[in-house]
């Protein structure tokens, strides 16, 4: 008898389509990893109770409307399994100072709804409690995070890191530079250490290094930005992801421009040009426009105009 494959969660799919969301958008709105979300829709796996709470909050609908009524009946069993899993492995290390910063910001009354949701996503991605009351009532999850060590990376762990990276991007866009830097410091070293063993991790680590380079540039640490961008390029090469490599080379060009090294900047952009046929149109346009700017700074007007036209056409 042929074994049946997974059955797609039609209710979850319909709930997403009603909001006109892509799967990526749905994952972002709910504060969960995109890979996990795709598996939930396809029926390959089920969300944990913590993830189910995020889904309900993101969609604004009860579990039954999302196809997970049966999970709410199994809460005692699932909670025990999750507690056992948390005791068995830890995915990231934070200092006590970093925990204090995140905790105080989450509790602060001056936080607006968007920033509070972003910080809550970070805490959920770290496996922490879901409310400030739970956070201080049960310190054991934080102790496990602070004292734990990274183990073999699996899909769930990777989803945690992806969630943290997206949260950092949200913090940076919201002007919360110091918090973003603290969060990156908590997990980026682990990603870099695992990057040589996984192309996916290498790509994610490269992107996080680019985020960190943006943060240090705001503190005018230009030489540090250059070094971070160079490291991001190295990891992007390991990932074999042309979009990631092109973006990291473009950011390296920006770093050299900040450092007043136009020749090195142009060299970085010219390396990025090798991949423009295989990357997204938006990234193509960025590389063409920044190459044009670098050429103009060097007085190469005709070449600058050529790439400027390409940038407008991309």
Can you walk through the features of this model?
This protein has 314 residues and is an all-alpha fold. Among the domains are: 1-88, lambda repressor-like DNA-binding domains (434 Repressor (Amino-terminal Domain)); 89-197, no CATH class. Helix content is 73%, strand content 0%. It has 18 helices and no strands. The chain has helices at residues 10-18, 23-30, 34-42, 49-59, 69-72, 75-88, 96-107, 113-125, 132-137, 140-147, 155-173, 177-194, 199-218, 222-239, 242-258, 262-273, 281-297, 301-313. Helix 2 (23-30) packs across helix 3, helix 11 (155-173) packs antiparallel against helix 12 and helix 17 (281-297) runs antiparallel to helix 18 (301-313).
Features:
314 residues; single chain; 434 Repressor (Amino-terminal Domain); 18 helices; mainly alpha
């Amino acid at each position: 008898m042929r074994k049946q494959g997974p059955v797609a969660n039609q209710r979850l799919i319909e709930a997403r389509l009603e909001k006109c969301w892509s799967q990526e958008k749905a994952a972002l709105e709910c504060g969960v990893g995109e890979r996990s979300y795709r598996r939930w829709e396809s029926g390959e796996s089920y969300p944990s109770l913590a993830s189910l709470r995020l889904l309900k909050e993101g969609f604004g609908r009860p579990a039954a409307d999302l196809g997970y009524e049966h999970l709410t009946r199994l809460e005692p069993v699932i909670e025990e399994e999750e507690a056992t899993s948390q005791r068995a492995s830890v995915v990231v290390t934070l200092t006590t100072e970093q925990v204090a910063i995140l905790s105080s910001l989450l509790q602060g009354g001056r936080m607006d709804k968007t920033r509070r949701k972003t910080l809550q996503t970070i805490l959920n991605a770290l496996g922490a409690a879901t409310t400030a009351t739970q956070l201080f009532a049960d310190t054991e999850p934080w102790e496990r995070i602070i004292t734990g060590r990274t183990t073999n990376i699996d899909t769930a762990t990777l989803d945690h890191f992806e969630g943290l990276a997206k949260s950092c991007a949200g913090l940076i866009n919201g002007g919360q530079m110091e918090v973003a830097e603290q969060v990156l410091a908590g997990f980026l070293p682990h990603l870099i250490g695992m990057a040589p063993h996984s192309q996916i991790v290498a790509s994610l680590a490269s992107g996080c290094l680019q985020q960190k380079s943006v943060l240090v540039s705001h503190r005018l640490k230009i030489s540090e930005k250059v070094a971070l961008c160079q490291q991001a390029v190295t990891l992007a090469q390991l990932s074999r992801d042309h979009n990631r490599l092109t973006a990291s080379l473009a950011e390296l060009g920006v770093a050299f421009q900040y450092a007043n090294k136009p020749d090195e900047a142009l060299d970085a952009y010219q390396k990025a040009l090798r991949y423009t046929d295989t990357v997204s149109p938006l990234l193509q346009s960025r590389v063409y426009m920044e190459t044009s700017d670098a050429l103009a700074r060097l007085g190469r007007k005709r070449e600058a105009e050529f790439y400027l036209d390409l940038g407008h056409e991309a």
